[in-house]
Amino acid sequence: MIKRLIRRVLRLGNGAEPTVVPLKEHGISREMISYGARKVCEVLASRDFEAYVVGGAVRDLMLGIQPKDFDVATNATPEEVHRLIRRSRLIGRRFKLVHAVFNDEIVEVSTFRAVNVQANDAEGSGVPADLAVDVHGRLTRDNVYGNREQDAARRDFTINALYYDPATETVLDYHHGVRDLKKRTLRVIGDPRVRFREDPVRMLRAVRLGAKLDFRIDPRTRAPIREMGDLMSNVPPARLFDEMLKLLMSGHASACLHRLRVEGLHHGLLPLLDVIIEQPLGAKFMNLALEQTDRRIREDKPVSPAFLFAALLWHEVLAAWKMREGKRMGRIPALYAAMDEVLDIQTDKLAIPRRLTTTMKEIWSLQPRFENRSGKRPFALLEHPRLRAGYDFLALRADSGEAPREIVEWWRRFMEGTPEERADLLLPAPKGEQKRRRRRRGKRKPAVAGPPPTLAD
Ligand code: ATP
Ligand code: MG
Known about the structure:
The chain is an alpha+beta fold. It has 22 helices and twelve strands. 36% of the residues are buried.
């Protein structure tokens, strides 16, 4: 009751009126909206709430791109939405949201939030008490409910602040988003410096959306990025990981990373990435990995984030491995130490979750094991749960010229072969290895006279 009253008061404060864009101009008919998003809007509207399809979906539909997912914005609180939509759950990390579930579709429903703060204005005025900013002007809490106009103003880019009403098939445009869509321009809402300071991740989003849509970034939006890139180091590493993953899984990873480098934003994300890029083999390997990922995503094939991160950091691991091996460390212990070192440095900036780093290490540590092509070892490798990923990784290394092609071919035939073919493929044990084995067998000899051999032998 009180909440509704507050809402009504807030609505009274509405200043700017949006442009109402008709169907014939935006071209989005009701049928183009997913079943779930339409249903959510219908249910909320039937209870006198406002509900709109917002964000990327409206933008993408207007550009003729199939949206990844549909988001809904409403003046109902998360609790109200949760109560009205039967199969829904309240989720909340930075702020509370509702996920409405319809078979295999999940619609994210968010409550209108308050306008952004002009965090760096000299007097510090205009900062509502509930909005928290850190010393760099970064918003640390922005879970204050607001009205539709405020919700539009707190969004990042003009083309992301369009509100589509399925009931009337109209689009509400507060910040000339439709004009910018036509001009294929990405423009920050408000003062770019302030908005980037509030949330430096928006710089990353600018690069990602620019590459995804093939839009030019408006000069006023673009200019501060180069000088403000360092602010990225204030963003919590887990959030950076989420955004980076979106970027890498966008189907435009190659173009995105290229743009990140152009804008000087890569330093804080993948430390030493620029060093790798200066090594011709490293650059070739990374580009191949990114292109392969983009291709697979566009073909709707599954891709593994662990594989991709393993590829991005492989030449770091190689360099650290070589350094350690030189210091009288065994080959394999040196590799393990190198993996840990690279991941330690990396996760400091961009928190790659443990479930991924475990797989990355498996992929990396399989690489030297592919060199063993005699005795029992190749058979043991066939049982390895990451064999396929490890093999694909090896193939990529060969494509970039870093591993011998012939090993990849050998493994392909070994993996596909019958037991007889596999036995035929085995190579004789290398000379040093033969001697070592003989010596080991020699040492074990006295035991034969003792208890019978066990399975472990
Ligand atoms: P994609 O096609 O990758 O999903 P998107 O624009 O929909 O792109 P989301 O991360 O799904 O990106 O965000 C949905 C909407 O939320 C955006 O369109 C934008 O309006 C708003 N938004 C997301 N992140 C921010 C941010 N950091 N600052 C302000 N608004 C944001
Ligand atoms: Mg989206």
